Amino acid sequence: MSNPSPSPGSCRFADYFVLAGIDTDSGLEPDELSALCQWVEAARYGRSQESPCPNKASGENFDQSPLRRTFKSKVLAHYPQNVEYNPFDQDAVNMLCMPKGLSFKTQAENRDPQFHAFLITREDGSRTYGFVLTFYEEVTCRQICSAMQTLYQMHNVEQCSSVYASSSCSMDSLASSIDEGDSSSQVKMQRYNSYDIGRDTLYVSKCICLITPLPFVQACRKFLQQLHKAVSSQQTPPLPLESYIHNILYEVPLPPPGRSLKFSGVYGPIICQRPGPTELPLFDFPLREVFELLGVENLVQLFTCVLLEMQILLYSQDYQRLMTVAEGITALLFPFQWQHVYVPILPASLLHFLDAPVPYLMGLQSKEPNDRSKLELAQEANLCFVDIDNHFIDLPEDFPQFPNKLEFIQEISEVLLQFGIPPEGNLHCSESAAELQNLVLDELVHDKKNGNLTSTTINMYELLKGNETLARLQALAKRTGVSVEKMEIAAPLEKERDTRCQCSEEELRDYKLAVQLREVFAKRFTQMFADYEAFVIQPAQDMESWLTNREQMQNFDKASFLSDQPEPYLPFLSHFIETQMFATFIDNKIVSLWEEKDPLLRVFDSRIEKMKIYNVRVPTIRTSNYQKCTILKEAAQAIEQRLVKIDHTAIHPHLLDMKIGQGKYEQGFFPKLQADVLATGPTNNNRWANRGATAQRRKDRLRQHSEHLALDNDLKEKYMQEARSLGKSLRQPKLSDLSPAVIAQTNWKFVEGLLKECRIKTKRMLVEKMGHEAVELGHGEANITGLEENTLIASLCDLLERIWSHGLLIKQGKSALWSHLVHYQDCEEKREAILDIPVGIGPERRKSESGLILPSLKVSLIHDMRHVQQMSEIKTDVGRARAWIRLSLEKKVLSQQLKQLMFNQSLIKKLYKRYAFLRCEEEKEQFLYHLLSLNAVDYFCFTSVFTTIMIPYRAVIIPIKKLSNSITTSNPWISVSGELGGTGVMQVPKNLLEMTFECQNLGKLTTVQIGHDNSGLLAKWLVDCVMVRNEITGHTYRFPCGRWLGKGVDDGSLERILVGEVITPVVEEDLSKQCRTPPQLRSPTVARRLSITSLGGKAGKPNAGQIQEGIGESINNIVKHFHKPEKERGSLTILLCGEYGLVSALEQVFHHGFKSVRLFQKNVFIWDFLEKAVTYFETAEEEESQVNLLDGKRCAETSRSLCQYVNAINTAPRNIGKDGKLQLLVCLGARDHLLHQWIPLLAECPVISRMYEDGALLRDRATVNTLIRVLQTLHDFNITLETSLVKGIDV
Length: 1291
What we know:
The protein is α+β, with helices and mostly antiparallel strands. The protein contains 44 helices and 24 strands. The strands form five sheets. Strands 1, 2, 3, 4, 5 and 6 form a six-stranded antiparallel β-sheet that branches. A five-stranded mixed β-sheet has the order 10-11-9-12-13, covered by helices on one side. It has a five-stranded antiparallel β-sheet with strand order 19-15-21-22-24, with no helix packed on it.
């Protein structure tokens, strides 16, 4: 939303004065659009199609009593006819002055004047404000009274015929709340829903309105109330009404920034004030009411939803409450601004905008106090529903909390308590309404304060004003000609006293409270974004180039910014920096390099500078400690000074050059004003007008001077509009044209916007996931964190929900996507029952004759749905939809399965309107193409989120049949471990190489232990690898072995620990051609892969240089691992024991120059060398001769530790072989930071000369010293080993 600022050229307090009401020439004219919307609502609520419906030609609904029907209002007059800088939009003003059209009442009903505000947002984002006072005038036109009588007669006939036609006929909505068996209730219902031309007096609504460039709410309210009082009072006003209207239109200026202004109303002075350029922007709505209506906790939750750009729907019977809450919550966003659809009061004819698949903030008038259950919305997955009247808020699922929420609420509560306002809100604000509800219907309940009584003593007269007895007395008194001046519904005595004062104590307190509350909110952003400027990426090109390529530009270093924030802030900030309001804020910061700073940005930046000066803190240090606002008193004092000492006084109203006979009015009727005196302003140039014209001329000259230096404004606006994401051009629907063609065009914009948003989101997800590879290709920033990934996926889920809710006709539950899936499942299960074909079973590839590969995973939408439905942890439809999206994304079948869902044409036509996104064929194809691009990267977004669910796994043991038996006669077992846990030992069925098991989610699999008990004749077993697959996600892991299991063969191991990695799953042919990046756990650069690959035996023995490089890179990978955020680290086991891990690199060092000749037909292993070295150290220690070899006590401790670890491994109750023991020793030495001590000890041991050649690396002192220095870099890290690695070892 735009910062409240006057339009260019505007220097007047008010632009227009408007009078709207009934046009006696056209008579009663039904409002066709509103009536049609009511009928559509009725259809949604479950009425049969045969029930009475509005005549589409006339808009009439005979099922509803005439006094409750919608009739067209009209702008009767507006002055002046047009203002150049603010053209008058008659249709929009009429619709917002009377959003539900004309209202008719009788003398038995409450007719208190009602005030409400509205705004119109232009296409460029600038605002025009309207302030309306609605009152009731007696209908004097005999034709209209007769027409109303005739409508009632037709209504009664229709009701009688409906009763006889069906006992279940549709009853009048007003009668539905009254017990049919209660005769007294029926009498009351008939009394309030009937009209007799001979008995009753008919009243119709009329309104007076001021259109202003700035939201001076209180001043406009007072002016309009005094104007109405002059009409309703028996005493004539001091001057004709034209004098006061002419004065406010032409002779009252806007107060300058930082100044206050006093001008004259009909009965007393009115003052207003405007903040200075360094203060928070103008906000004149009563923020106190917002907190009283919602309570602090509800408001903070609503505030968070608005910041995250969710869909916000405000719901109340009172228009002014809708406007106050909407304006209040957007004012608290400083320095950010709402960028999407913003309609605080949604007219009945625009209800279709609730289906908009974009973020919005809208206000909807409720017809009954508790009719939320009747309100059906197309999308609720991302909706925040605020029932203002009932102090209730319905929040979306799974959204992050505002940082320091508890301390934040505590500070706000302290401010409220200082002004005597309970933090939980005034829950009793509707008690008086509850007392009157049994006597009077909804429209009678008005307490002159929008239903919001303060904590002071309730005025008894206020409670009695709607009483039936008092209404009868007033009607009787009027018929008999008795004056009841003392009982007229004007303002109470206390309010009359307020209007005579320059500023009442209550108003001053409201101003001070509002500014202090806003300062508390502003302080939070000042603290959270104190260093934001350091992360803004400054453009290297000129403004035109930057605007042209805005969409492709990276303007903010999000990864670095998040890494600099306190941990508790990350869940919220990672979502918030993805919003359009934050993107626009950064855009404004960059544009300020070439243009004048945005006013909000200027104020915010000055506050950050001031905070840094006063706090003198180091910018790089971020803390989550809560800092209270310290300028509350100063902010309140600035307003108080302006209100106590008035800076400017406007010209007093005076007599105009009017025709003779003008200025005489009939009490209770707003007069027809003399148009000629209100059409133009004074001819003389007064001082403020002259100053304004001079300032405007100066601005014009500056603008003309800079035109050749900057972009053309139209072109710039075009670029900015195209560059920013959807919703920007639809801030408020155009009210002046509501033809079917315009509505269709609006829906087409929604479709285009959704497609564009899908393209942007999928590209961002792809680029961020590819990391450094994307940077090398020039796509922007790198290093996506898991937190960012989760945020982007959640954003994709929200987008899919909005797409599936666009144009929706039938929905079950809150999730439109899950509702569609369930309908699809029902259709498929019915087809299964008819054709006797199992549903959800995709084609399965036959196993090869050797049985050595996993069968292909069944790819089926229904199959995946059933998995999600079986997850007892998920309780809601929204949660199930998101789980299904995550599962499909992880399986790389999201595009494929959505295509299957979207191209079931019969179901789509049944569930969606013709204009829905899902029925736009070309856009659907592009949408699926964008989603297909996500198959290029690997996601674990399902596995990593749903950590407690039970998952079935399938394991296959693949032997090397050419060199070994395929089946062993012993009893094999396996144990599978992952990042989230392990299975424990599981026996493999005899004579089988495949098994399935179910256990709690193991996360990403890391190790498999395989072994057997060496029983039987064919116990020796040569295993190539073990394959394990997650049967839900399809992720398949390969654990290479290539070694023997059995005594007397290889290294004699009966069990081995295998380390694996994810491999590309075997799926359908159309998915088999996908590209993929290396797994996230190990993604070395090309150069690194080349150097490490040379270490393998296939390419020959590596030389010394390659071995040293391999050691350095394995250590470097471990260091990088620990420098990542803890949540983003991969598997340390792979970095230690993987193919190119630390163990493998050290093995190469130990093997270099090793004399591995066969001794008595047995292989010699590195472990043999270690055992001999340990024997030497133990013997030497006993003989106390090691002092000559070792360097004192420190070396003695090192040798004892080596002996202790080797002996512990040898005596452990595990049948791991010699190479497995070496792997375990290296892992334990890395964990306890002993490797750098053991290496020099072994290098100096005399045993080395017998078992190593002279040129071995371990016998080269320089190489050993280098190795020691490299290993010492691990000292700074706390290495934790998996349980599967150290099982049974107690050291």
